[in-house]
Amino acid sequence: MSLPKFIIGMMFALAIVISWSYVDGASPGTIVLRAVICAVIIQAGYFLLVFAMIGKATPTSADRIREADRGAILNKVADGEKLSARRSLH
């Protein structure tokens, strides 16, 4: 889900919660509290959704090629030779 779609959906959900609270006859403080709780729940759900999408993502072909190149380079390094932080693998 893209960020603009999320923001529009969140605004509609908050508008529904605020309208429902107003029709229910809640005080302004209760309306604000309900809106904040709703926003936090929606935000946490969006975070978990994005986190799950990243976790389930499979490596792309570029990632596989890069990993294969690293393995080939490390195999060429002599057994006794150490790689320092100053030396590049490329």
Q: Tally the helices: what do you get?
A: 3
Mean pLDDT equals 80
Order of helices and strands: HHH
Helix content: over 70%
Q: How does the helix and strand content classify structurally?
A: mainly alpha
User: How many strands appear in the DSSP assignment?
Assistant: 0
Q: What is the global morphology? A: rod-shaped
Largest sheet: none
Write down the Rg. Answer: 25 Å
User: Which spans have pLDDT < 50 for at least 5 consecutive residues?
Assistant: none
Distance from first to last alpha carbon: 37 Å
Tell me the strand percentage band: under 5%
Number of domains: 1
Keywords:
single chain, 90 residues, mainly alpha, 3 helices
What is the gist of this entry?
By secondary structure, the chain is mostly helical. Helices cover 74% and strands 0% of the residues. Helix 1 (3-24) runs antiparallel to helix 2.
Can you walk me through this structure?
By secondary structure, the protein is mostly helical. The protein has one domain (3-76). Helix content is 74%, strand content 0%. It has helices spanning 3-24, 28-56, 61-76. The chain is rod-shaped. The mean pLDDT is 80.
